[in-house]
Amino acid sequence: MNIRILTFNIHKGVGWGRTSTLNKIHTHIQELHSDIIFLQEIRGSQFEAISSDIWPHLSYGKNAVYLTGHHGNAILSKFPILMSDNIDLTMRRYERRGLLHSIIRLEQSNLPLHLLCVHLGLSIRDQLKQLKKIVTYIQATISDQDPLVLGGDFNDWTGSATKPLVKELGLQEAFLDSHQAYARTFPAWAPLLKLDRIYFRGFQVSKAHRLVQHPWRPLSDHIALEVYLTLKNNDE
Asked: pLDDT for 152-177, tens place per residue?
């Protein structure tokens, strides 16, 4: 069972020069045709516009609410979503953050697949608290036998996610496995910081790449990531 997963902080559909890029994002995501999509900083109505009939199953976790609307995380899936929950990771009133958890069932497996889309805070202190909360949540609610994918914008410019997620929780990260380093994803015009990740359990990674080619780079302030995962056999 092979699945393609995309994670992308779309910056509310605003690209370089403060121009709207939502229509282009919609077009190019459809051309990519990934099986599962994790989106961060997406406005309330934007995820429905992007989903179309390619990803008929979607969930949305509202994080920030303001006078002109709201934004948060979204998961778009070709597979039916069995349930969803949005976990509040907010540490500061002016910086609303969350973890969106959805469960799907893959066609060729009896196991549920847990999808977790996250956007962490900017400060290291907040990130450590949020990561601890994520680890506790996964340990308490997800069986060790169930495969999972945890992707999104970790704002992790110091590598603080490695110890709790890789060393303690036992997850693998697609770019770390494939390229021996996390992907440089921010800022998109000259990516230096390794902020965006795709962690997983119960899979093998066959390909992991950044979408830096035309026309992807100008669509947001983050670089989108796509990985190809193969579900492990139960006896592996």
From this structure: 999 999 999 999 999 999 999 999 99
